Amino acid sequence: PPRSTLFPYTTLFRSNEVRYPDETNEKRWDFAILYDRFIQNMLARVLHLPWDSPAAVDRKGPRSLSQCIECLSMSLQLNDTSAHVWFERGVLHYAASLKQTHLKRFYLQKSVDDLEKAFKKSPKELYRKWLVFLYTANGEPGKALPWVEEMLHDSPWDQEMWKVKARALELLDRLEESREAMERLEYLKKR
């Protein structure tokens, strides 16, 4: 993220461990890939935070997952048109579903709602991938499956989508098709 931040939550996710493409090789800078890495880094870091902390948010950033969510909620109160803020709050709600297991469905639904808003504002592929994953996790495989099929049509080697497809089919009790999707996934892993 940019170094000059409006909200302190982003200080939590800065990392010296991020590896950027080497300018001498053939890889090129791709914002979507870098943003995906940022999101994965953010998720990994917030999962190590406690759910709640009595300390107020300070200049060094929030000290709990609930404070991270609150920072993004305040940002959305000021400007609700930013798709990436809706997306990032949705990812944090997903993390909350993993930490607050007694409220798992509540936070999964909040995550889906935020991701749907992000996708509506900016239909990015990363947002769609997360929505597919969340629909499946939230017990809505019927919503996920058409998008999974479309994404696999465009990228048939996407192992993550084959795994989501297998899970969605399993939830729909289409076990033979689920098994076939898992076989395809295993085949791709060997290549």
Report on this model:
- The chain has 191 residues and is an all-alpha fold.
- Helices cover 63% and strands 0% of the residues.
- It has 8 helices and no strands.
- It has helices at 31-46, 65-78, 83-99, 104-121, 125-137, 141-154, 159-171, 175-190.
In short:
The protein has 191 residues and is mostly helical.
Annotation keywords:
8 helices
Number of helical regions: 8
**Radius of gyration, taken over Cα atoms and rounded to an integer in Å:** 18 Å
Task: Give the SSE string.
Answer: HHHHHHHH
Mean pLDDT: 86
Overall body shape: globular
Low-confidence segments: 1-8
Our estimate of the beta-strand percent is under 5%
Number of strands: 0
Main sheet?
A: none
- Global structural class: mainly alpha
Distance between the termini: 34 Å
Topology of helices and strands:
Elements: H1 31-46, H2 65-78, H3 83-99, H4 104-121, H5 125-137, H6 141-154, H7 159-171, H8 175-190
Helix pairs in contact: 2-3, 3-4, 4-5, 5-6, 5-7, 6-7, 7-8
